[in-house]
Design goal:
This protein is an alpha/beta fold and 379 residues long. The protein is 35% helix and 22% strand. It folds into 2 domains: 10-258, Spore Coat Polysaccharide Biosynthesis Protein SpsA, Chain A, CATH 3.90.550.10; 275-377, Rossmann fold. It holds the Pfam family Glycos_transf_2.
Amino acid sequence: MNPPKRLRSEAETPTGGREEEEREEEEEREEERGAVDVSIVMPMYNASCWLDECLQAISLQDFTGTMELSVFDDASTDDSRKVVEGWRERLEARSISLGISGHDSAQPRGVGYAKNKAVSQSCGQHLCFQDADDVMLPQRVRLQYEASLLQPNSLVGCKVRRVPEGSTERYTRWINTITQDQLTIQLYTSHGPTVIMPTWFCSRDWFLKVEPFDEGGKGVPEDLLFFYQSIRQGGGVARVDECLLVYRYHEKATTHSVTEETIWKLRVDFLQERVLGQWESFTIWNAGKQGRKLYRSLSPTNQEKVKAFCDVDENKIQKGFYTYEESKQRPKPKIPVLHYKDASAPFIVCVKLDMTGGVLEENLDSLQLKEGTDYYHFN
């Protein structure tokens, strides 16, 4: 293994000549790019209570290639940066170089900004994204590196163990049980990326081809925006089918700052772009609240493609029609409501997964439908 290279800390760079030194360091990184196999990219904000466990796990990776840890501190007000610096010697003893920088503004600039800065100061051929409050298992870097070599234009994820146990139970089950085919089919569910951001691993070349993370700050789903852009660029989605990350749930997680309506709009727009634009007509499976909301969210062109709603609720079916009261058209659009056995594909299914005791899945199977061709989940 190559000897560790100590990256310059922002605090060590003198004020005078900073721009010149930054240019020189960037040139050095360009020259050495490829000398490091994997950069572990870690944004950080007030994470001191989790860092020892996180960094201990990084130091215990069984990967035999070269690694560095690139940390960007997004204006922490605790001693996070001091804790990371305290691990420098132990990391370098394991041949893991440490680069840490940050800013001391009054307010953090957001996860997207911090991730971009951590990536830009790193030099690995591959990027392993790590949240400061999560814990990677010893084989994570090795197994995802091997998978990424085989799929260089893909975002590679893994299975997770959620702590505390039982938190976000349905979401965690979805993360771990979605099939490899569904990773590229169930792109429109409410859960977000089919491989979650804290598990991402990819080649640097692919990251640079997609685009940087959105730096809009609090409330911006920078992971979903990047994920959708990767799909648009023709990127793949893959998962190592082993649990490689302890994924922590807590109230301070940045995920909680993103509103459901923000995610809804992104999903609707992506669905219209990737699926509905290719269909001449379709049926919305669910004549209830979620199905009607989807209809109202569609563009006028795609609303006209909705030939029916379908459902299993006899009360909804007996009404016969859904009338779009908010429409400015005269007469107002009236969409038929049918029993699902009387409806025809393709369908957009607006029924929550894992909530019907398998009844929804049985109904779909009874019609001999193929997911990704005859129907897509939007739930």
